[in-house]
Amino acid sequence: MRYTNRNKYPFYVEEWLKRDDYDYEPNVLSATRLLAPVRQTILLERFGEYLETDVADAIAKRYGTAIHDSFERMRYEESHENIVQEKRKYANVSDQMISGKFDMIVRKDDTTWKIVDIKSTSVWTHIYESRLEDYRLQLSILAYLLAENEYAVSPFGEIVYVFTDWKASDARKSANYPSERILVEEVELLSPEATHDWLVKRIGLIQHYRTVETDKLLDCPEDELWRDKTKWAVRKEGVERAVRVFETEAEAEELLKTKDKRHYVEKRTGYVRRCKYCDASNVCTQYKRMRDRGEVE
To answer: Which residues is 55 bridged to in the sheet?
Structure first.
């Protein structure tokens, strides 16, 4: 990976943003990589040394790492025998070694452990539950790995949300807005059988597309693009602001029936968010197509 520094940050900021402490292992698929789109995984494997990104794009990642590091430095294990932190576990699925590192597991009774995951994220990610299924699957994979290593795991995991953009003023205005900057939420995990089935399918796709030419790779599916919801706006010619914005086209068309001929419905396709976090976007033809269609900011 090559880094640019378009903002000309001083060297100490640049080096901080470039730092990567992730424990990469050859020939092992981590839970993080398994959860990524198959297309992204293959492009990173093929073009990793040729990829380029700007250090500014790592700022959000540094926030998340800092919060995780502060939890890790607490060293709960030294004073709490019922807590284990930051351990990587392994298993073999479909002749592929996989791994995952949990943030924390907490003993709930004499035999059962509960997975705890720390997430630094936007308030709106939680409100719209746009990443909830990703989080559930991640915890389910970690639970599967623990079970393969002879741990009895609770069917429920725990997510500790640390909101990066929380505002007290917004919390006072809306009942749906988190009341505090930190929220702890229990999540039901997939069964071990369902998780195993997902892993077999995912690994099979990766193994297949490792043999496919780059221009024939599977596109990232819509449900993995983190796309904003598409909306429909009722507009009036010559007026900058929309009359009203709707979640469905039918609702917009109903309002349009009550307006004169100077009004019209404008479709606002939701922006794809995942690409700006993807290190392979500058070699990805799907990204270029979406960018040309105005679907990526």
So the answer is: none
At 31-55, the pLDDT tens digits run 999 999 999 999 999 998 888 889 9
β-bridge partners, 92: 97
Output the pTM of the full model.
0.86
* Per-residue confidence (pLDDT) for residue 210, from 0 to 100: 94
The reply to whether 177 falls in a domain is yes
Tokens for 71, please give them: 């939890």
Pick from 123, 115, 58: which is nearest to 84 by CA? 115
The answer to whether 274 touches 225, Cβ cutoff 8 Å, is: yes
Residues 212 and 249 in one domain: no
- Per the prediction, the chain carries an average pLDDT of 92
The 10s digit of each residue's pLDDT in 248-291 is 999 999 999 999 999 999 998 889 989 988 989 989 999 999 99
Contacts of 82 (CB under 8 A, 6+ apart): 106, 107
Q: Which candidate, 147, 155, 27, 136, places its Cα nearest to that of 89?
A: 147
| 233 plus 94 within the same structural domain | no
165 and 187 both lie in a single domain:
yes
Of 208, 209, 227, give the one whose Cα is nearest residue 276.
227
Q: What contacts 153, CB < 8 A, 6 or more positions away?
A: 112, 113, 114, 115, 143, 146, 147, 189
Find tokens 């993995």 and name the residue: 224
Q: Are residues 247 and 182 in the same domain?
A: no
Dig out the tokens for 274 from the structure: 């995942």
